[in-house]
Structures are given as structure tokens and as C-alpha cells.
Amino acid sequence: MQQISLKLKEEVMKGVARIPIVVDSLTPDKLFGKSESEIKAEKVWWGNRQENTGDLFEVGVDGEAGSASEVKIVLEGDLSRVKYIGAGMTAGEIEANGDVDMHCGAMMRGGKITVHGNADCWAGREMHGGELIIEGDAGANLCAMYRGEITGMTGGKVVVEGDAGECVGQYMAGGEILIKGNADILAGLNMKGGRITIEGNAVMPGADMTGGEIIVKGKVEDMMPSFRFVEVTTLDDGAQYRKYSGDLAMTEKRAKGVLYVKA
Amino acid sequence: MVEELLIRNGVVYDPINGVKGEKKDICIRDGKIVEEVKNPKVIDAEGRVVMPGGVDIHAHIAGGKVNSGRLFRPEDGRKGAEPKTKVCRVQSGYSVPNTFATGYRYARMGYTFVMEPAMPPLAARHTHEELIDIPILDNAALPLIDNNWMTMEYVKSGDIDLLAAYIAWMIKATKGYGVKIVNPGGTEAWAWAKNCDLNDAVPYFDVTPAEIVKSLAEANEKFEMPHSIHVHGNMLGHPGNYVVTMKTFDLVKGIRAYRDRPVLHGTHVQFHSYGGTRWGDFESQAKAIADYINSNEHVSIDIGSIILGDTTTMTADGPMEYSLYQITGRKWTNHDVELETGTGITPFLYSGKVSVHTIQWAIGQELALLIKDPWKVALTTDHPNAGPFIGYPILISMLMNKRRRDESAEEMHSAIFDRAELPSIDREYDFYEIAIITRAMAAKTLGLAEHGKGHLGVGADGDVAIYDITPEERDDAGKIQKAFLNAKYTIKGGEIVVKDGEVVAAPQGRTFFVTPECDEKLMDEMLTKLKDTFEHYYSVSFANYPVQDAYVPNPYEIRAPWRS
Amino acid sequence: MVQITDVVCPLCGCVCDDIVVEVEDNRVTKVRGACAVGKSKLMGHGRIKSPAIRENGALKDCSYDEAIKKAAEILAAARRPLLYGWSSTVCEAAKVGVELAEEIGAVIDNTASVCHGPSVLAIQDVGLPSCTLGEVKNRASLIIYWGSNPTSAHGNHMKRYSYISKGYFLPGGKKDRKLVVVDVRETKTAKMADKFLRVEPGKDYLVFSALRAILYGYEDVVPDEVGGVSKKDLLEVASMMKEVQFGIIFFGMGVTHSRGRHNNIVNAIQTTRAAHTHTKFNIMPMRGHYNVAGFNQVCTWETGFPFAVDLSLGYPWYNPGETSSTDLLIRRECDAALIIASDPGAHFPGESVKHLAKIPVIQIDPFPNPTTEFADVVIPTAISGIESEGSVYRMDNIPLRVRKLVDTEYMSDEEVMKRILEEVRAIKAKEGE
User: Chain B contact for A48, CB < 8 A?
Assistant: First the structure.
């Protein structure tokens, strides 16, 4: 097992402007097999200029890895302007100690990311697989699609311990999302597959859905006026739920989505 | 820019001058082909295939609907995103590339002229602003003049001379190149969510599409127009429409073109060669269309052949685009243009797993292979409707190589074996014929050959493509595809713009436009009616309508006198 | 005295082009045909007299050369520069802006970010069934203004293009048409309507979904009241929509900026599509500035994306919410900004203005405004459409050319941008040595 520690130097975020650093080149896949000095020489974008990783981060490498899946990267420091953590990764692990910026886990295919803090918008964007744990809150567009696309998340598992922003899982086609707190407006917008479970409250969930499943265990504010009540049913947790089919605003033929709201 | 250029040791294919793969020197001075040079920069083509710069007769590259296509597809934009370089601006897009990528990618394929085929006259300024921003390529645009209220009213009253005055004014006002016709009458009907077949009366205007086509062909031939009417016929995309296509072609059979060119150019005819009665029994009728073209001299076509994969459809055929959107449920943009035309745009995925798409894929190639005379055929994909222009090299390799076609058919839906002809066709194009359908035919049909395009005779523009392939390698389909995608050299107006597949210079191109010359009295009579139309029904004023000179900074004017 | 006809008004998205102007002693002295706001712009008002650079808190007059040089220095050195505004200048200037953004790796953005950006996002989701304004004039017998109050923001809109205009198929004008207004309060436009629906703030999204369900024939699932609107009223409006030959929805800030934002517009467009299964129905955003659409057009054909384009990584990256100006500034990402033909000082959220005031700001504008209060370099320019000509796009994306009516000593926006670009290139060339 190998652990690569990357600690953002304090001076990077000290200026009047807090300029983002893009770290999609710092994943277990891309760093596997690289020495400490090679990692320090890896280029990362800081605004419109490329810098050496070693100039922005304190780098430490501990142990050996036989493959990317044996690599664990631990990020520390003020990560609130560090974007694309774990983007596209297929194996290994990343731990972020702090709040992380946008696109954390975007397009990931495997491996595991744990954020000990909040994640900004577009965490898990277009995710295909792997695991993403956010211990704090998630910003808007969690696991959503990129603008214009009709497919977002297709696989993988995401857990948000806190609250989630608007449009959770927009255009979701597969995979699982669990929000332990509340979800802001339009969770499951345009959903066509997969499952979203919200243990807290939701506002206008399931709008324009054509497939997939949403389970709301808290309260629904502003239920969509275009859903059809089906029946009261019991789910795996033994509790009773009102089952709705929708969204008929997409026409009945396409309204194959299911919304469960705790009774 | 290098003043003198000499290309030696190239195997030259110059169909307009009858050069069929001869080892020949090409000399260029001051941007033009000349007999000989004294102190040139020398390019040794080393036995490679040399052709005139490509001439594309029909590709949607500039204007309102192209930009709407870009705007509403950021997911297409992010494909092909490239940073700027010393020579090139930023690039983006796959089926709807930005203007810079459009110029660079065409140049890399050895093309030097592209015709924007559908310019809504009210938005002509927009088309020209984009043409200015397309690097390298010379260009032109065809204004839409068939669903216009003025057109339909003159067709109804039978005033062909006044119709001619109107089309002259429109072509001048829009700095356009000729007469474009798209779903005549049908796009006006679409403003009421209706459509028209060839012999249906257009609501309120009470003329039929057939009458519109015939009248416009007559009006067009009142002038020494370089190009014939350019027609996207009614019922595009409908099973069984091959009958409408042939009827449309028949409409203008008796009309005499002013010169040795067809009276009607049928565009993206793949979409108009459909048999069957519905999607369930859909089949190719390319053979019927090819037979027609083989036995008639008054029509030319471009194929509009499918490239598998994702693309963006965009045409002035509003109702057709709506039907497409209803089939796929995908996003759909529509833009009806007052008193003139309309637009519909929707993404589309052509899949080799789907029977209908497979047959469509076969049809485009069947047309090229079953029409005996390549001088009647241009290679297009109706970019981006049947696919992006970047797919031309795939088509070239298919037309030149039966085995490649067969291998592809194996991977596609089996319907190709009983509802299409392609698997039974053995013919293979050679480089000479490819040169005809990718440059010579278009230059001739557009009337551009005598203005320097599409050939390498003395006096022609110094537009040359050197492809990284030798005639001996004509059976290597993979190499053909690669060679036609990234030219070894592309020379534009005597300047090397592409070397080893990379853009090394990006000079500005010129916009070609036609100035039809019309009797003043006729023009005045037409203008009285036109100004009244502006006053009451247009939302812009007459004075602000014509395209100002500022929008055509590099003009090339072709005069079209009235025929006596 | 010279009379100039067919003047194109450089104020709002209506881009009225039949204005008549009188010019005397190189000044516009009379304006006919424009609405009050357009007339005010054409008649002219107080402007910035000289380029200036801020020293010790106060603006000190300088030459164009000095101001341009200073601007170029600031931009060339910046790690996350923003080029913002563009909506009140011509396309020719915007093109130079894109070129400059490529050169320095900047984010380029226009006022759509705080205006109809949500409409663009919606179009990218579902497309836009629309038309030119002349189609509305000639054919639309049902006009719906939703979250839009044209009597105040687009003075000539109804007279030239919609409810009050006379068209080919509707020669009786108002008599041949019906007007429906949907808004959170009874506006002046609402008072003219045949039917007014008062919707609860933030509930438009629900009302659209309900209308769609009704238009598709599922009225049985719709509750008796949705978002403050009765089911009876919804059924009535749905009937009106189904029965006409041509209907149009015009929408404005009421829906783009209330809860749901761009998704409200998606839903409005979906409602239009549902209506289209019955009859011809179109929808159009009421664009604010006279060339906000023009910038979006130029930016799209040149970069592939309409606004909020981040070129810092070299290739264009588009992601509103991340690359839009207000977000960049609220998150304090930018270290320099060029503000042209716009007024973020007045229109941006307080948090973003706070940050803007802390970083070097270059302002290019004919007129002083709240942004001038904290700009570090101020470069006054000619007023496009009065002192310089250029290309603009109306709210329905029809391109027009604004005219030059009077002479001026001021440099145009395009000229200033070109000079800045030149200087930036010179600086970078020197750095390269």
C-alpha cells in the first residue's frame, strides 16, 4: 500500500483572489508508479498558468504500490479552491481533509473518494462507478449531467451525510445516491434510472422523471401537480409510503418514474 | 507568402482539364497557376496524389441555424475542444464546430471552397459575419427564396419577369450566390404547424410547391446565373418520397439552362430516395433515382450520405425537423422567419444497429455508385444533417473499396441485405472519379471553374491538395481514409496553409457573390410591391435590410446579365 | 440640420429600426418614434470626459495611450482575469474581446449571466421553438406575457411586434388578438390583459407542469389549485392556447430569476411544446440590452459557447454556475477584471461587487456609473449606435447594423480593445525573450 500526501501550502490561498487549482492529473491512476520528485514535477493548472505540484503542495510518499488500486492520496490544507479531485479515477483511494471545490469525483469509474467536509457543486458529475462519500453537505448538481447532455450518472454509489443542493442526480441513468439530510429543489430532475434516497425533506422531487426511483423519508414541499397517486405500500424498511408514478408532464407513455413519499 | 511555388513529382488528377493521374509539375505565382516559374520554393510531392483544392457544394457552416445548433449543444462543443496555438484560434465542437475549427478542419482535408447552402435572407448579415470568421476557405452562401411571400404571390399571378426581378434583388441584397429552395411552400405552411406535398396548395397563398419550383427555375434562367436552382425537395425523409423526388425533377425538364449546366441541382438526395410506405417496410429506392439521373441531363445531385454516430440536424424544413423531434423526443429548436422561411434543429444519432439508419447509410453510397457519370454527382453529408464533414474521408474510402463496404455491412443491421442495393454493387471509384465528385463537379456546377476553382489549369487559383498516398496504394482503404483527413500539403492561393496535416497559416478567404442584372423598369415595379410589404408586414425597415459592404470585406463579385 | 431616417435604436432588445433623428451642430436634437428610454439615450447625457487612472484613491486624468498601457499591464499579469459586459456595445468589439480572452487565458462573460443566462441553459436542455418578431405581428392571435412587463422594460414591444400591432393575417390589431398575462402582481401590462393569472412567488414551475399535464389530457391528476392559480383558470388558459392558430409566450426576469431559475424556462418551453401538439405555438425571451444577444452569437460561433467561457486552460470550458461572473466574483476567484459596456456595480449581488472593488478593474464605457466609483483604469469610448456603427442582434436574433449619427473624438470600443490586445501581445513577447 502506498500513501501519497499532498498538503496545499498556505500561501496559495492567502491572496485577495482565491484562484482555483485543477488537480485532475493527481489521481491514483495517474500518480501510480511515479517517484516523489516526479510527483513534484507534475503540472497542475493554477488559474491560467501551469505550476509544478511541488510548488503548490508539500508532497510526501510513503510505501510502495503494485497497482493504482494500492495507491491512497491524502489531501490536506485549504482545499476549498481545489477542483476536480479524483476526476476520472478508476482505482485506488483519495481522502480529502476539508471542504473541496467543484467536480470532485467527476466522471470517476472506480475507486473511492472520501471528503471529510463539504463538497461544492457538481460532485460526482457524470459518474460511472466507484464510491463517493461526502461527510458534510453537497453543493448543487450532485451527480448531475454536463449541460446539454441527456445522461448524467450511470453507476456507482454516493453518500452525502449532510444536505444536498438543487438538482441532485439530474438525468441520472443508473447508480445509487443516498442523502441523509435534506435535498434542495428538483432532486431527481429528468431521472431515467437508478435510485435516489432522501432521508430528510425534498422540494418538487421527481420533476420530468421518466424512470428510476426516488424515496423521500422526510416531508415533500410542493409535490409536483403532474404525478398520479398509485397506492400506499410498504418498503424494505418496514415503513408505509405513498407511491406515485410520474412525471405525466412528459406524457403518460414516458412517465415510468416512481416516487415514494413516507406516509 | 512565397511568391513562386513549384510542386513536382506529384501524380495530378485535374478532371476539368482531363488530367488523369499524370506526373506533372504544378507552378504557382502570385496565387495563380502559371505555365512556369523561375525561382520557386519547391515541394517534392514524391509520387503522391495531387488534386485541386476541394470544393464543397453544400455544407451548413455559417449562419443563424448553425449557431443555434452550437449554442444548444454545449455537449457537442466540449468534444474537439483545442487551445489556441501560434497560428490557430481556439477550436471546439464535433458536428457543430466553431467557425475557426470549421476552416482548419476543411483545410486539413485539402478543401479550399465551401458553399453555405441555406441563408435566411432576413438574417443574411449573420451568415456573412460567420463566413468572415471562417479562416482559409473561400466561400459563398445561397439565400432561401422559395417560401417568401413575394415569390408565392408572383408565382400565383404568373409574373415570371417580376419574379426574376425579385430574386435578382434578393441575391444582391443578401450578397448571395443563387436561388435556394427548401421544402417549397411547406415551410410557409409550417408557420401554421402544417406542411405541403408537391401538389398541395399552400394555405392562404394558394400556389403549389410544384408551381414554385417551376417558376423559380424559369426566373433563374432569365439571367446568366452561374448555378442552377438548388433544391431540397418536399417530403424529405418520408418513406416513399422517391416518387416526389422524380416528379420534382420532371417539373423543370423543359426549361433550357443558359449554359452547359443542369437546370436543377437536387441536394442531399439520399434523404429523398426512400421507398416503402412506412418505417416498417422502409427500403432504398436509390436505384430508381440513379436510373432517372442516368437517363436525364438536366439534373445534378449531391448525395448527403450518412456518417454513423451522433450529429445535429438543421434545415429550413421546419415540419421535417418537428417530425424528427417527435420520433426521438430530443431537444428541438425552431425559428420561423417572417415572410421568408424557417428553421428546425434537433440532434440525431445514426446507429448501425437500427435497420432504417443502416438502409439510409447504404442509400447515399448507392447513389454515387449507381449513377454512371460522376460529373452528375457531388460528395456531401449535408453537413451536419447526415453527418459532420469530417466524415468525408470515410465515404471516400467506402466508394473506393468494396471490401470495406462489405466489412461495414457485416457489422450493421441485416436489413442492408434485403432492403438495400449496396452489398450487390461491385463498382469502386478511382482517384480520378473521387477528384470529380469532391471538387471538379462542384466547381463546374456552381459556375466557379472559370473563376479559378476546382482545377489546375493556367489561370486557376493556386489551390492545391497533396494527399499522403500514392496511386499504387489505392487499395489500402485505411490509408485512403487517413490521407484524405489530414493532407500532406494544402495550398491556398499559392500559400502553404497545411503541412503534414497541421495548419501552418490561416489567411482570410473571399466571399463570392452574384450580381444579377435586371431591367430598371421591371425592378422599379417589383420594388413598389416590395416596399409596401416592408412597410406593413416586415419587422425591419427596407433601408436596413440589405447586407452592407462592411459584412463582405473580401468580396469576389460575379455578374449575371439578363439573357437576351 | 440633417434628418436621418431608419435609425436603429441602441437601447433595448427591441432594436427598433424606424427611428427618425435630427442632427444639428453634431448633436442629436430631435428624436421621433422611439420610446422614452430610447429617446433619452439618443438625445445623449453626461459622460466620462477623459481616460483616467486611479492614484491614491482618486481618478487622475491621463491619455488614451497611458490608460491602455496600464490596462494591458494589469491583464497580462493576471492569473484569473475576467472580461465582462459587452451587451451595450457592438459585435465588432466582442470579437476582439474573445481574441483577448484567448491571449491572456481569461473568462469572458456577458450580462446574460445576470439576465437571460437561465434561458440559454434551458435552451441547452430542451431547445427553443421560436420565430422572428414579424411572425408574431402577422400571425399571433394569442399573446402571453409571463413574468414580463413590456410597458415598462420594452416600451415599443407591443406596438411594433405584438398585442397592439397590425399584421397580414390580423389586420384588426388588438381586436384580432387576445392577451394573457401571468405575473406575481398586477402590472400595467396585466391591466391590459383579457386574462390575468396571479401566481404565487416561486411557484411558476408548478403552474407550467400543471398546464403541461392538462395540455396532454391528464387534467384528472391536477389538484384544484396550483401555485395560487385555480384549476379552473388553468383549464381556461389551456383552452385558449389550444384554440388559436398561432400563439406565443414572451417571458422575462419574473421567471428567469425566481425559484427554479433556468428550470422555470425549461418548463415554459416544455409547455410550449405541449401546446404545439395542438397548434402552432412559439416562445421567446425578452432580451434586455440591445446587443446582449449579439455577444452570445459572436461568443458561440467563435468559441462554441454563448457566455461564461473560461479560457484559462487554453481550450474553452463552459459551465455557468462555475464560470459565470457573479459566481467567480462571489467566490473571490478573479484577480483582475475588464468591465465594458455594462454596470456590474449597480446590477451584481453585493458580495461580488465587494470583491470587484478589491481587485484591479478596467472600465470601458461612455458613461459613468456605479462601477466607475471603484474602477482603477477608466477608458471612455464612443457611443455605439450614435457615434460609431456596428453589428447588433435583436431579441429574436435578427442582425441589424446600428448607425453612426454624429462625429466624435472618442475612440470606439473596438479600437480600444484592439489597442489593449496589441499592448498585451507586446508585453507577452517581451516576457518570452
Answer: no
